[in-house]
């Protein structure tokens, strides 16, 4: 939007006529008319007063913004996609380049244009030389976005560059790029698995992936434990029971440590202050904690090293439960219970 269009837009928003603007600034009404038509521009000395009169600032009036809004980028993305899908690939690239020249520091614009035109170029059926030209331009925009300061744009741009390096079998460079991405921000697991498979062998890649599956399964187990507690506290007792069943069933399904199957119903029994159920599931959990985790029996972790026996886990359980029952209000209903003390004594002897 040029300055004439801006003047017209903000004049109307302020409820002013061209004559009123002219009167306030000491110019003629035809002069204001010419500004809005773009046939002339206001004198530089009038710009501060004009901006104040129109309730805006010089940066907005003169389009000095370095960034587009997300909405503006979204609208441009829609227009760019339409242009590319019409088959005018060169026109779409020119359209993006022109907008980027206007807003060279807009990271979101750079990333959006590169992403859209990457897909457009792939589907275009362009010749090898032309495709290389498109790729150079796309990677230039991605590199600029990856060097930017906006984290939410920079990380996806780095990820896209890594995938492009993998397509070109530049695995070392791809791995360097993926290492720049913090864990949890993007799913790096599958690209890293592919890199390991190509650079080493399938066994190395499978070993790596098995470790990530184990991490994901134990993390999911913790999430389910917490979710069932929250549902119980929210009064959704049936839902909490269903989640407890899911958490219990995932232990054999994902080859997790057997004692974990007793935890969900133990948590519910504690929340419900059900002494008998609590003691029953506590006894079961500590009994299972004595058993070794035979991790290699699961096809999911057959390459992973064996886990230690349950002795350390059992000791940890006893210490943690003793501390909690002595200090936390939620365990008041268990405090002084003779059966509980007997369970602690029994397993304390077994784990020594």
From TrEMBL:
UniProt KW Nucleotidyltransferase keyword: no
Pfam family, one: HTH_3
GO molecular function: DNA binding
Highest taxon above the source species: Bacteria
Entry keyword Repeat: no
Keywords carried by this UniProt record: DNA-binding
Coiled coil stretches, renumbered: none
Domain (HTH cro/C1-type) ranges: 7-61
UniProt protein name: Helix-turn-helix transcriptional regulator
Source lineage: Bacteria, Bacillati, Bacillota, Clostridia, Lachnospirales
């Amino acid at each position: 939007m040029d300055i004439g269009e801006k003047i017209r837009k903000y004049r109307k928003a302020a409820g002013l006529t061209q004559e009123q603007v002219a009167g306030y600034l000491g110019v003629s009404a035809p002069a204001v008319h010419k500004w809005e038509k773009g046939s002339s521009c206001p004198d530089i000395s009038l710009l501060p007063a004009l901006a104040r009169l129109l309730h805006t600032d010089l940066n907005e009036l003169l389009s000095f913004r370095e960034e587009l809004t997300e909405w503006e980028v979204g609208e441009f993305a829609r227009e760019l996609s339409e242009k590319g899908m019409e088959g005018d690939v060169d026109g779409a690239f020119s359209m993006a380049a022109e907008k980027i020249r206007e807003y060279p520091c807009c990271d979101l614009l750079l990333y959006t244009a590169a992403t859209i035109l990457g897909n457009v170029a792939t589907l275009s059926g362009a010749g090898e030389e032309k495709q290389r030209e498109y790729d150079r331009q796309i990677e230039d925009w991605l590199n600029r976005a990856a060097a930017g300061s906006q984290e939410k744009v920079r990380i996806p741009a780095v990820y896209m560059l890594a995938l492009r390096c993998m397509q070109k079998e530049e695995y070392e460079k791809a791995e360097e790029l993926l290492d720049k991405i913090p864990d949890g921000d993007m799913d790096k697991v599958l690209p890293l698995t592919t890199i390991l498979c190509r650079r080493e062998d399938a066994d190395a890649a499978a070993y790596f992936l098995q470790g990530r599956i184990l991490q994901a399964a134990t993390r999911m187990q913790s999430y389910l434990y917490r979710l069932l507690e929250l549902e119980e506290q929210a009064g959704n007792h049936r839902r909490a029971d269903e989640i407890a069943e899911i958490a219990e069933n995932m232990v054999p399904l994902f080859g997790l440590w057997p004692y974990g199957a007793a935890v969900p119903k133990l948590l519910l029994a504690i929340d419900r202050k059900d002494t008998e159920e609590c003691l029953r599931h506590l006894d079961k959990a500590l009994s299972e904690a004595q058993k070794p985790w035979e991790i290699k029996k699961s096809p999911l972790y057959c390459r992973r090293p064996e886990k230690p026996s349950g002795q350390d886990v059992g000791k940890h359980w006893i210490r943690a439960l003793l501390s909690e029952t002595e200090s936390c209000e939620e365990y008041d209903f268990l405090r002084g219970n003779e059966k509980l003390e007997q369970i602690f004594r029994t397993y304390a002897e077994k784990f020594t």
